[in-house]
Amino acid sequence: MRKMLDGVRLIEVAEWFFVPGAGTVLADWGVDVIKIEHPVRGDPLRGLIHSGMVPGAAGLNFFIENGSRNKRSVGLDLNAEEGRAVLYRLVERADVFLTNFLPAARKRLKIDVEDLRQVNPRLIYARGSGQGPRGPEADRGGFDAGSFWCRGSVAHMLTEPGKPPIMQRAAFGDTIGATFIAGGIAAALYHREKTGEPTVVDVSLLGTAVWLMAPDILAARLLGKELPHGDRSRAPNPLMNTYLCQDGKWLMLMMLTPVRHWEEFCKAIERLDLLERYPLPRWVDETVRQALVQELEQVFATRPRAAWIDRLLQFDTLHAPVQTPSEVLDDPQVKANNYLVDYVHPQHGPFQVAASPVQFDLESTEVRRVAPEMGQDTEQVLLEHGFTWEDIARLKDKRVIP
Hints:
The protein is α/β, with parallel strands linked by helices. The protein contains 19 helices and eleven strands. The strands form three sheets. A six-stranded parallel β-sheet has the order 3-2-1-4-5-6, with helices on both faces. The radius of gyration is 26 Å and the shape is elongated. The relative contact order is 0.14. The mean pLDDT is 92.
């Protein structure tokens, strides 16, 4: 991939995935991302798999590989005054500072906006939070399962009424929010280039959820009640629904405009009789739509999903298989577009990571360097910033760096 932001330097003082994920996207785009980690424990994400979060997982930490590729790692104790002095030296040459530390921690460590702008007045300061930078809970932390998934109404609207809230998948809101942070930083870099003014970039998990759930949230305001939960047996549009095929696999129909697709679809499934029995004007009647859904269930139960896809591809229809993660690995469109990036890890051999979604001139993400071990690049980075080997030895003796 072309390094669109080559020459930009970013200091990342952040843990887990929400905010570091933004650093990953920017590193893919060519930014020199220096990840600051505690010199003993590192980013707690490093221990997530081995602590039992993923039973049976061992060896390569895929969370870290996916989230820290193309970055460099510096081990640094920011609680020590000399550690902060080292950080300030790095910030002097940086374009962006990226963090998810809470306001109290930023103030205590003297790494808040005002502190770092004294070191580098042109510094863009980007921060991610659980609930946003203002309000009564601005100082409280938050993870995506809480601030994004539950508080943002995602869990409620995806859970069947009367059932316990379903849990999200790993880093679901984190990954989405990280992409917004990366976009915000890119915009801030452009603004500074045009005006000379640095900005503070804020993205929260709650704000990300409000944006994603806007149709439901705005409808609740306008209508005074919530939109109904999805019930496939009572689909408002039978051509926007899931159907179980003969082999137990599900197929999603996604035709937003029945006026355009209804006749073509009936030809595809070889049921022209449905055109006469279920003309579009009758679809305003919910009982008619329910009856049609039941008939389509019977139709799709007659063939395996692959056979239906082969048939539907011959006609002007929109559809998608409901795939498992294992099936995504073999999806021909995923392979053709390099949405999974192959590379060879020096210790673990062939591996894949997920490409960040943006491509420039059809070029996909490139793994230029594998995820670093904690503090792996400390000496090199310090030497680049004017420290001597004597300085490095002294910092090691004081356990400021690993």
